[in-house]
Amino acid sequence: MILIKKVLRTIWTDKAPYLGSMFLIAFSCMLMVMMNLVSKNLNNTYSAYKSNHVMSDVEVYLDTELDMADMKKRFNVKIEQSGVTDYSSKDGQILRIFSFNTQINTPAVSSGKKLESGEILLDKLYAKKNGYEIGDIVQIAGKKYKYAGDMTLPNYIYVAKSKDEVIRDPKNFGLAVVDKDDFESIPNATPFYAIKFNNSNNLKAQETAMKGYLREKGTKIIKWENTEKNYSVSYVLVKINLMGKLSIVAPSMILLLTCVLTGILMWRLLNRESVIIGTLYAQGYRKKELMRHYLVFPLIVAGMGAMIGTIAGVFMINFLYNFMLTTFPMPKEPIVYDLGILMFSLLLPVVILCVSTIIVVNRMFKIRPSQLMKGNKKNDKANFIERKLRLDKFKFVTKFQIREQVRSLSRTIFLLFGIIVATMFLQYGLTMKSSVDYLLNEGISKLYHLKYEYVFNEYKRGAPPKGTEQFNTMYAIMDDEAETNFYITGLPKNSTRILLNDLKGNKLTPDKVIITTPLAKKMGLTIGDTIRFYNFEDGKKYSITIEEIADTYGGEFIFMPLSELNAMLDLPSDTYIGIFSDVEMTFAKKEIKTTKSMDAIKAGFHSLIDQMGIMIYSLTISAFVIGLVIIYLVTGLVVDEHKGTISLFKVLGYKKKEINKLILNSNIFTVIIGYILGVPLLVGSVDVMYQALAESLPMVIPAKLNIWYILLGFVIVMLTFELAKLMSRKKINRIAMSDALKSGTE
Amino acid sequence: MFIHILNLKKSYQSGVVTTEVLKGIEMKLEKGGIGVILGPSGSGKSTLMNIIGGIDRGDSGSVVVDGIEVNQLDDNKLTTYRREQIGFVFQFYNLVPSLTVSENIEVVSHISHSPLNMDEVLEAVGIKDKKHRFPRELSGGEQQRVSIARAIIKNPKLLLCDEPTGALDYSTSRSILQLLQQVNEKYGTTILMITHNTAIAAMADRVFKLRSGEIVAESVNQIPVPAERIEW
């Protein structure tokens, strides 16, 4: 068909907007394919890992040995006794050593050979960061082990030292597995039981029954950890799910942008070609034939864009999948290229763009051919907003720019939406950084005035060591669906280590029951509410009434006077379980249950911020490119739509600078409003995301965006705007004065 | 002489073909006068007016307007010349559709050193009550009035009108011509008009007939006819 040549020529003559649309489609398809398939493949990998290496349902720490045969029979479970210990291999370096399990949580050996007596398996990144080569000797507690290979553990996928330290630090923390016999020779090991229920239905009820039975038997449960709720596993699941969700949200926003853009392009094209359409109509062309012709535009743009983006996405899958497996080590599975997603990515933009084109073309077909042949001037009508605007008090330049924005609402909405999307991309990483900064500075540093926290295995009584402050804790579990748990900490009434403020900023002293904001939010509590909960240790039910809410994001706690907590637990009033200290202290290993270093926690946050660097830079560059494409396209549209006006201005004696100011600056208000709207929208979205993450993170992170980052983002957006303007100047310079003389704009 | 053109030549190159559009035009018009250029399509009227208005340049010859040698001006000076000396009225009005009547006039007053009073001009062209309307909401005649108001707001020395009644009906055309005559009288503006309509020549002081790039006839009206008496 001869008309196809016309399509190709039209696209070639007016390349920028079509190429821009193609770029946006390609980008969204690439994101969709890459993130969706990686998320799906990671899910498959996780499921395969869970099943092939028999991931435990729970890990149970008890004060006595378990009659495993009786438990297996009674509860229809698999049980394997295991053990773990932290060994300080070098200065402050911790190697967490597990015994080699053969039934549950079996290690996956990724390189090297099967483990034998006198050998050790290490986690790959730890070995790499510390310069270990397979075959090297690793010394543990005076005994030499041969480094036999690399392994990963299904119950310890994200290798962070603890929930509190948030981020993994392979230089200073790693995992190791040794043979069960060898493990027995390592001192200070803690035994635990890995349990897998044979019936995977209603696990919670099965767990409750088992806990009840153990308590009935007088067995003390030191720790009961649901493996999938354990930070090292739950964090992986949250990240995979988040990627899955983002794989829908981010491309959808860009695709929607492209639809609006294509709609505008088509409307503009049809307006420009209304005479041709009218003539073809008059010559006997049918609507169907003309529709087919105009559908070639979105087919070419969306088809090419979707194909390029889908292929690019497929190429990127391997890279992203491997990168994710470095962060969350699991045995690699063959990548599955879900045909459904690939087809979806290829067809969705084509369908959406074709539908929007059909809508636009149908609107044009409603106009009579005779009207079309005269050139459709319908668009020159002033809309409702234009008619209502009274701008007498403004300067001419401002009037002109405001009028331009309300003239083409679809164009303005496209630009506004585009800037909002670009702003959200731009500020996404910076918001995460700001939030962590805020948490660190306003949350942790303002709440905790201590350097170390030591928790003992047994209660102590009397005065704490000099220079320290004592506390007691109760691990409380709510009898709700989510089994919400938190610590209730008893503090001396004159505590100087934990400093709290109320929501108005007034200082609070721990002589009342005080709940932290994140926990109050999570549980929907306010002052005066009474909560009932179980003490995890003894299974007894208690209740307390909230008296104050503390404005801190330092964690999910309830603080109360130490004496009152002790009275509640039926303990002497001078009892304590731990101390806060400013100096590092040494205790007998048996005496200490946990040690927490505030510096290590802060360092964890700092490395989290450092690791965000790459993400922030890549998001900033993406946002810059998207923003530039959108602003350039809209500026191009403005210039095209104003060819006559620009030409007229030239005839009337306007200088280049004056024309540029009037035409190119007309979008400045929309760009600024888009940015202003984009910031709170992003912070709101990140807040929602953090709520989802709160399940796996040790604390609720407040979504914050530093004022300096807001200003920096603004500068970047304005620079993008200036660059787009610079690129459009040539277009304005090319418009001849004769254009105004040849045809009237009205 | 306000306009003095000597041996003006202009040709356009299109591939290997050269078309001579103006072949040595000689023309004079006194200050405050009304000149009409008559001629068929392709006779070179628009090219001649573009050169006088500083939109285009002649290849050779001299074009002096109020003592300024227009043909010798560089781009910047031509812009200043158009900005300060010339008012344009177009056949299809060339109004900015997104601006109201008063804002369309501001397009010019905004860049003028000493523009006339907006209300006075709106009053003079008879559209004061329509200052907040958009072009689309006006009739053709009213739009041309806005176009004239826009042209005269800067009080130009020369008003160039390109077929100002070409898109209008008979009675509207007459009212527009009347308006142009009033502007000429009230502000002393020199007007040069191009038209197909030979009847309009009656209202001019001087009439130039152009054919194939040459002035084939030039006449002077000792007593120009008032526009309201022109009929065709």
Automatic annotation (TrEMBL), chain A:
Q: Name one GO cellular component term.
A: plasma membrane
Pfam families, per this entry?
FtsX
- Native organism is Seinonella peptonophila
> Where does this chain mainly localize?
membrane
* Annotated transmembrane regions: 16-38, 248-270, 295-321, 341-365, 413-430, 614-639, 662-686, 706-724
What is the name attached to this protein's record? Putative ABC transport system permease protein
Task: Give UniProt keywords alphabetically.
Answer: Cell membrane, Membrane, Transmembrane, Transmembrane helix
Q: List the membrane topology term(s).
A: Multi-pass membrane protein
As for subcellular location, the record says: Cell membrane
Keyword match Transmembrane: yes
Family matches, as InterPro entries: ABC3_permease_C, Membrane_comp_ABC_pdt
In what residue span(s) does the ABC3 transporter permease C-terminal domain sit?
249-367, 619-724
TrEMBL record, chain B:
| Recorded GO CC terms | membrane protein complex
Which molecular function terms from Gene Ontology are attached? Answer: ATP binding; ATP hydrolysis activity; transmembrane transporter activity
Does the record carry Heme as a key word? no
Q: Which Pfam families match?
A: ABC_tran (PF00005)
Keyword line: ATP-binding, Nucleotide-binding, Transport
Q: Does the entry feature the keyword Nucleotide-binding, yes or no?
A: yes
Q: Where in the numbering of this chain does the ABC transporter domain appear?
A: 3-232
Which family is this protein grouped under? Belongs to the ABC transporter superfamily.
Protein name as it appears in the record: Putative ABC transport system ATP-binding protein
Species of origin reads Seinonella peptonophila
